[in-house]
Amino acid sequence: MKKYEYRQSNSDHTLFLKKRNGKITCLIIYVDDMIITGDDEKEISQLKRNLFKEFEMKDLGALKYLLGIEVKRSKQGIFINQRKYVLDILAETGMIDCEPADTPMVQNHGLQIREGAKRADRGKYQRLVGKLIYLSHTRPDLAYAVGVVSQFMHAPQEEH
Fold first, then answer.
1. Shared-domain flag, residues 94 and 56
2. 69, 81 in Cβ contact below 8 A?
3. Which of 13, 72, 131, 144 has its CA 20 to 30 A from that of 108?
4. DSSP H helical ranges for 93-142
5. How far is CA 102 from CA 99, 106, 139, 142, 160, in A?
6. Residue 110 belongs to some domain of the structure
7. Which residue has the higher pLDDT, 66 or 17?
8. Is 70 within a domain?
């Protein structure tokens, strides 16, 4: 990317930026996926040509779904959600028919590690909490509950 005069972000090393004539082009990479965006259509086209020369890749068009996040565009703006991601988590945990709650956890929950309590499957618990941490990016209202349950990753019990 440096060869094409892009600057790597200090805060996110997978983000590359190029400012030209008061416009900006952004490229962000996640494993084998990338998003190219910005307001410099000429630079975006040139970047795609350069990348196609160097790598075997496909242009999938406008971003619709990436890493569990749905992206919708309208005249009012760009909207993101994780509806499908949430439904997948609910299906995986057998909670697809659960009732919604305004507050997923009370503040004085009393959760702790109890001597002799029945243990939960540690790997399954850790995977689920990881998914919930990722979900909290678009659902900050879940952050408190996710923070609480993440405290028990090393020794999860059924109550957790």
1. no
2. yes
3. 131
4. 122-135
5. 10, 10, 12, 10, 19
6. yes
7. 17
8. no
Between CA 104 and CA 89 the distance in angstroms is 15
pLDDT mean over 18-23: 95
Do 104 and 144 share a domain, yes or no? yes
Collapse the DSSP code of 34 into the 3-class scheme (helix H, G, I; strand E, B; otherwise coil) and give the result. Answer: strand
Q: Compute CA distances 122 → 129, 148, 150, 156, whole Å.
A: 10, 16, 12, 6
Based on the fold, state whether residues 38 and 90 are members of the same structural domain.
no
pLDDT, tens digit, for every residue of 90-110? 999 999 999 888 777 777 788
In terms of Cα–Cα distance, which of 18, 36, 40, 19 is closest to 28? 36
For 62-71, the CB contacts below 8 A with 24+ separation are 63/35, 63/37, 66/30, 66/33, 66/35, 67/30, 67/33, 67/134, 68/134, 68/135, 69/137, 69/138
Pairwise CA distance, residues 122 & 89, whole Å? 17
Domain residues for the domain of 116 are 83-150
Q: Which stretches within the chain are classed as H helix?
A: 41-54, 83-92, 122-135, 143-150
Structure tokens at 2: 């440096």
